[in-house]
Design a protein that fits this description.
It is found in: Cytoplasm; Golgi apparatus, Golgi stack membrane. The protein is α/β, with parallel strands linked by helices. It contains nine helices and 13 strands. The structure holds nicotinamide-adenine-dinucleotide and uridine-5'-diphosphate (UDP) (2 copies).
C-alpha cells in the first residue's frame, strides 16, 4: 500500500483522483485550502480509514512522509485565477517549491498538473510537447500561464539538480461531475444556463476552439503517467476532438432540450483562438492511453450531475 499526497484534492479533478487512488488500494492524504474546492466533493470518502483530509495552503511548508505526490493545488478557472492573480502565482510557484522540497526530503515521486495554457494562444496546431508556446507575460492570464510554466521549470531543475523522480502532465480542458456550479468555465456555465432557461453567454464570435476531455479519461492518464518508468514528460493529456464554442453551446442546448437563447458578449483579453492536443506521445508512453468518452456521452453524464446539483440538494 502506498501513501499518496494529493494537493488540491478537494477540487474538481483532485476529488476524482482521491477516489480512484483509494479504489486502487492506496492510502490518500488530501490537502486543500478550499479556495475553489469544497468538502462536499470528498465527503463520501471521509468514512474510509485510509483517507485523511488536511486543511493547508501549499504556499506554506508542509511535512509528511509519503511515497507519491500529485500536485494539483491551483485555481484552474480563469474567473477564479484572475480574482487574486498574486495568490495564483504564489500557489503555482511557492507551492511547487514546497512540494518539490517535500519530494526531495522523502524521495517521493511527484507529478505536476500542468496545463495546455503553457502553449498560450498557440500558433502551432495541434499542440505538441516540443512547442514552446505563445504567452503574453504581462496579460490577465499570465498569473496562471507563467505560474504553471515556472512550475514546469522548477520540476525540471529539481530533476536535473537533485535527481528527483518527477512527472509533468499538460492537461487540456477537462469537464465532468463535481465541477462547482460557480466554477465559471464554459462547460459548467453553458449547462447551468441551459438547465435554468438563461441565455448561453458566448465571449466573442464563438469560433474559438477547445478540445474537451471527460475527467474519467484524464484520471486514467494521470495514474498511468505516475506508473511509468524512465519517462518524465511533459506529456499532453487531452481529447483531440476539437469543437468551436458555438458548437459546444448548440450541443448542450440539444442535449438539455432547452429553449435558452445564445447571447454574444465581448471577447476576453488573450483568449486562445484554438486549442487541440497532439496526443501521440501519451499514446506511445502510457500503454496506448486514449480518451474513450465522446463529448456527447460525457456531457450527458455531466448534465445529469448538474440537474441533481441544482434541483436536488439532498443528493451528492
Ligand atoms: P479546481 O479549482 O476545482 O481545483 C483546484 C483545487 O486546489 C481546489 O480544491 C482549491 O481549493 C485548491 N487550491 C487552490 N489554491 C490552493 C493552495 N494555495 N493551497 C492548497 N490548495 C489550493 O480546479 P481543477 O479543474 O480540479 O484543476 C486541478 C488542477 O489541474 C489545477 O492545478 C489546474 O491548473 C490543473 N488543470 C486543470 C484543467 C481543467 O480543465 N480542469 C486543465 C489544465 C490544468
Ligand atoms: N519543504 C516542505 N516540506 C518538506 C521539505 C521541504 O514544505 O518536507 C519546503 C521547505 O520549506 C523549503 C522548500 O520546501 O522552503 C524547498 O526545499 P529545498 O530542500 O529544495 O530547499 P531549501 O530548504 O534548501 O531552501
Ligand atoms: N467562454 C464563453 N462563455 C463562458 C465561459 C467561457 O464563451 O461563459 C469561452 C471562453 O472565452 C473561451 C472558452 O469558452 O474561449 C473556454 O473557456 P474556459 O473558461 O472554460 O477555459 P479556458 O480554456 O479559456 O481556460
Amino acid at each position: 500500500m502506498k501513501r499518496i499526497l494529493v494537493t488540491g484534492g478537494a477540487g474538481f479533478i483532485g476529488s476524482h483522483l482521491c477516489k480512484r487512488l483509494l479504489d486502487d488500494g492506496n492510502e490518500v492524504i488530501c490537502l486543500d485550502n478550499y479556495f475553489t474546492g469544497r468538502k462536499k466533493n470528498i465527503i463520501s470518502l471521509l468514512d474510509n480509514p485510509y483517507f485523511e483530509l488536511v486543511r493547508h495552503d501549499v504556499t506554506f511548508p508542509y511535512y509528511v512522509e509519503v511515497d507519491e505526490i500529485y500536485n494539483l493545488a491551483c485555481p484552474a478557472s480563469p474567473v477564479h485565477y484572475q480574482h487574486d492573480p498574486i495568490s495564483t502565482v504564489k500557489t503555482s510557484v511557492s507551492g511547487a517549491i514546497n512540494m518539490l522540497g517535500l519530494a526531495k526530503r522523502t524521495g517521493a515521486c511527484i507529478l505536476q498538473a500542468s496545463t495546455s495554457e503553457v502553449y498560450g494562444d498557440p500558433i502551432i496546431h495541434p499542440q505538441k510537447e516540443d512547442y514552446w508556446g505563445n504567452v503574453n507575460p504581462i496579460g490577465i492570464r499570465a498569473c496562471y500561464d507563467e505560474g504553471k510554466r515556472c512550475a514546469e521549470t522548477l520540476f525540471m531543475d529539481y530533476h536535473h539538480q537533485n535527481n528527483l523522480d518527477i512527472k509533468i502532465v499538460r492537461i487540456f480542458n477537462t469537464y465532468g461531475p463535481k465541477m462547482t456550479p460557480n466554477d465559471g468555465r464554459v462547460v459548467s456555465n453553458f449547462i447551468i444556463q441551459a438547465l435554468t432557461g438563461k441565455d448561453l453567454t458566448i465571449h466573442g464570435d464563438g469560433l474559438q476552439t477547445r478540445s474537451f476531455q471527460h475527467v474519467h479519461d484524464l484520471i486514467d492518464g494521470m495514474v498511468c503517467m505516475m506508473g511509468t518508468k524512465n519517462f518524465i514528460g511533459p506529456v499532453n493529456i487531452g481529447n483531440p476532438n476539437e469543437f468551436t464554442i458555438l458548437e459546444l453551446a448548440n450541443t448542450i442546448l440539444e442535449l438539455t432540450d432547452s429553449n435558452s437563447n445564445i447571447k454574444y458578449l465581448p471577447s476576453v483579453q488573450d483568449d486562445p483562438k484554438q486549442r487541440c492536443p497532439d496526443i501521440s506521445l501519451a499514446n506511445e508512453k502510457l500503454n496506448g492511453w486514449n480518451p474513450s468518452i465522446s463529448l456527447k456521452e460525457g456531457l450527458k453524464n455531466t448534465i445529469d450531475y448538474f440537474e441533481k446539483e441544482l434541483f436536488n440538494n439532498d443528493l451528492m
